[in-house]
Amino acid sequence: MGIDIVLAIFFSFVIGVVFGGMGAFLFRRTMIGRQIRIAERKAARMVAEARLESKDILHQAKDEAGKISSATEAEYRERRSELQRQESRLFQKAEALEHKLDGVEHRERSLADREKEVESVRTRLEELRGRQLKQLELISGLSSAEAKQMLVESMEVEMQEEASRRLREWEARLKEEADEKAREILSQTIQRCASEVVSETTVAVVPLPSDEMKGRLIGREGRNIRALEQATGVDLIVDDTPEAVILSSFDPVRREVARLALTKLILDGRIHPARIEEIVAKTKEEVDATIYSAGEQAAYQAGVHGLRPELVRLLGRLKYRTSYGQNVLGHSVEVAHLAGMIASELGANVATAKKAGLLHDIGKGVDQEVEGTHAAIGADLVKQWDKSPEVVQGVAEHHGETGTTSMWGYIISAADAISSARPGARRESLEGYLKRLKALEDIANGFKGVEKSFAIQAGREIRILVKPEAIDDLGAMRLARDIVKKIEEGLEYPGQIKVTVLRETRAVDYAR
């Protein structure tokens, strides 16, 4: 009984499920058919709209095609008319060119005829020229080659004379310009520098309070004076000069040490060999300090910085050295200023020029101890303690003792000449001055053709009168150069000497 009920319930459930699925299937089929019909109606409507739109587009395309066709037709007609106009212009140009070609051909024919005429005339001229040359050769007795040679030789002589004249003119012009520029630079340099006139003396004299002091200085059996001379290396001259003792030595530093030591001994009053050695030793230390201070002061005045202590010490020794009465240290400072001014005018390095000018005479500080000229000694010293080759060149070349001279040598030489040759810078004895003037005139009078010579301007210039019949203008120029070379080789002089040769021709007649 229970099984039957279960089976009945199961079959009823299966039947319900089957009929429910069939209902859902039929419902979905109905819905799908409806959607298909709706889609078909939409598609039909879209096809109709597309047909209408395609008809409109086709109509518009036909209109555009008509417009383009009419525009193309108009452009074609315009291009055709333009081509016709260009063709007509080309045709006209072609006709003009044909006319021009005809004219050119006519001209060519006429030019060819003229060339033939010119050629015939040239042939006739050549024949005439040949006949004339033969006649000239017969008349002159010379061939054409010989006549050409004579003409060339005469032209060469004229060209040589003209070249010589031009060279003289150019030389005179260049010398005038160079002299003017040099005078301008040197005058500006001299105007910018003013130094004192020399008044120093090279004799060291120590005053004494009384003549009794001479005996104390000599000492018993001369032991005091011997001790002083041995300690200082200076000779003491005790003569009849009242209340004075003269110190003699070639070394200015030793002479200064002896002068100061002797002055201290006189003031102290205790004069014996041990005291003399003590005072001399202290005085040497003081003089060494004074020398170094003088070197530093000179470098400061000249505006030169960075010198080695050895160079400063040698520079300070020049304080006690004189040349023709001119203090060498003051001269070196003056040359440094002058060299800097000349370098500034020439556009060169002013600091290098000042250093070379300050050190140019540094060899004079040790020239009593070392062999050689002070320029060569100074160049070696500067090369040892200063690494500037320009400064070494300026020091070595300022007296023209080397084979070549650089710009720095010329600058220092010019500054040295200005400092030493200015009025009042140096003194020389009257006898030596007269001897130098006479030697200058003797050199000039020794040349052939010289009538008279006069040394003027304190020996700075010599004027020479020559015989006009013996020496011409070119000979006068050669004579001046020869005299200059002779003076440079055989005469020592400060600065420079101007040589002027005068040639005068006088024509004198009398009206009676």
Describe this structure as you would to a colleague.
A three-stranded antiparallel sheet has the order 1-3-2, covered by helices on one side. Strand 6 and strand 7 form a beta hairpin. It contains 14 helices and eight strands. With 512 residues, it is mainly α. It has helices at residues 2-140, 144-191, 212-218, 223-232, 252-268, 273-302, 309-317, 328-346, 350-359, 374-385, 389-397, 407-421, 430-445, 473-490; strands at residues 204-207, 235-237, 244-248, 322-323, 326-327, 450-456, 461-466, 498-502. The protein is flat.
The quaternary state of the protein chains shown equals single chain
Question: Mean of residue pLDDT?
Answer: 81
Structural class: mainly alpha
The description of the largest β-sheet is: 3 strands, antiparallel
Overall 3D shape: flat
Please trace the helix and strand order, writing H or E for each element.
Answer: HHEHHEEHHHEEHHHHHHEEHE
Roughly how many Å apart are the termini? 207 Å
Number of helices: 14
Strand order of the largest sheet: 1-3-2
Query: Would you identify the regions where 5 or more consecutive residues have pLDDT less than 50?
Result: 197-202
**Cα Rg:** 59 Å
User: Helical residue percent?
Assistant: over 70%
Portion in beta strands: 5-15%
Total beta-strand segments: 8
